[in-house]
Amino acid sequence: MKTWHPLLSFSVDLSNSTHLKSVIDRIAGRNRKRANDLLFNYFKQLLQVESDLYSGCLNKGIPLEGLYLVKSIGDELWYVYELPTSMPEGERNARVVDMLDVLFDVVSHGKEVFVSEREIQFLEEEVKGPEMWKDTPHQRVALPIKLHIDLIRDYTSFNHLRHEPILKVLDQHYGNVSIDERWERLKRDLPTLSQSLNLSPTINEDKRSIMFQSRVDPIGLDVDLFFRCCKFALPGIVSIGQHLFCEIFKNTAGTECSVAIAHDTHTTFRHYNFIEKQVSSKELKGIDKDYSIYRLLTYCYEPQLAFSGTDKNVDGCQATREMLLDAGFIQVIDQSVRYKICSDHWTKFGKP
To answer: 87 in helix, strand or coil?
Structure first.
């Protein structure tokens, strides 16, 4: 029987993306080529998030072999990272903290897309200067990153059975044909269908056999709980679910927590700020218990201190800023337009 290792599960989401698409639709209008070019610029930002994650893992010495992209749904990426049960606690904590460092860095590099009615050449902007924008509709849209992470233990996976329905249906569709004819048709149809149905078949001609590679796709109550909590993630902040927080952060007091990590032969402590949010079972819709998520605060960057982008009506970090204001981590200094960091909250553990 397969051993299911604990999973470090995290969702990465570019917020404000629907607003961006509305801006593209308004500015590009009926020029579909321009709209597609702008959407491609947006997609490149999503690819950059993946690149930041992979390069960050390699730079931290985190093996990519344990990292799985389970699903990519529009603007959201769902990853899991396997934590072998044989890994000692200190080493496991070190791996988790290293991954958190990578994710903090990913979130701190919020993305943005500049939307203009037409493509502007560099020399044109150099020659005409700011005057050129008077006749060219344009807008800069910030895309702060939301990220939620938690530990998933209660799960299983039946993804290795996903090929059975299509094989059964194809067999019925082929009807009363010879074994040789059935095999030829399967060789013809499966490679085409594998792209659209995500089946990943490997055909062995000599043995007349088909092997299906199944991707990681966990199912269970912990998975449902994870996604219920994702909607409470805030732009520019890494939020951590209660399972993971209680597993690795043993020492907490007020809004401060620490974790013991072991690298080689020595043990050190890492310190963090956090703000707890209690989520009721009613808000979790179908989960029959309350649950907490913890917003870890290791930095404060520009979009959290001022309106992001040029559109004052769509502020991607407004909810984040309101949380930081309520908790006393930032203060108003300019009639709710600009803010400053409260050093007594941040300097002890964070790095503003």
So the answer is: coil
Is 135 in the same domain as 171? no
Count of residues in the chain: 352
Q: Note down pLDDT in tens along the chain; length 352 residues.
A: 455 688 999 999 998 899 999 999 999 988 999 999 999 999 999 999 999 999 999 999 999 988 999 888 878 999 999 998 888 888 888 899 899 999 999 998 888 888 888 877 655 555 566 666 677 788 888 889 999 999 998 888 776 777 788 888 888 888 888 888 888 888 888 777 776 776 766 676 766 667 666 667 888 999 999 999 999 999 988 999 999 998 888 778 778 888 877 766 667 777 788 899 999 999 999 899 999 999 988 776 666 766 654 555 677 788 888 888 888 888 887 765 677 777 666 655 554 4
Q: Do 306 and 254 form a contact (C-beta atoms < 8 A)?
A: no
| Token pair belonging to 332 | 């108003």
What lies within 8 Å, CB to CB, of 329 at 6+ separation is 273, 275, 297, 300, 341, 342, 345, 346
Sign of CA dihedral 184, 188, 191, 197: negative
Tokens of 255: 């809004």
What's 287's domain CATH number?
3.30.70.1230
Output phi, psi for 217, to 5 deg. Answer: -150, 80
What's the domain range around 208? 159-212
pTM of the model: 0.83
Q: Say how far apart CA 259 and CA 334 lie, in whole Å.
A: 37
* Euclidean distance between CA atoms 170 and 173, whole angstroms: 5
Number of domains in the chain: 2
Gap between the terminal Cα atoms of the chain:
48
- In this structure, the answer to whether residues 40 and 184 fall within a common structural domain is no
3-state secondary structure of 103: helix
- Are 176 and 287 contained in the same domain? no
Looking up tokens 């910030």 gives 142
116 domain residue, yes or no = yes
Q: Are residues 207 and 226 in the same domain?
A: no
Q: How far is CA 96 from the centre of its chain?
A: 16
Q: Find tokens 């679910």 and name the residue.
A: 241
Q: 351 lies in a domain?
A: no
Q: Does residue 2 fall inside a structural domain? A: no
Tell me phi and psi for residue 159, to 5 degrees.
-65, -20
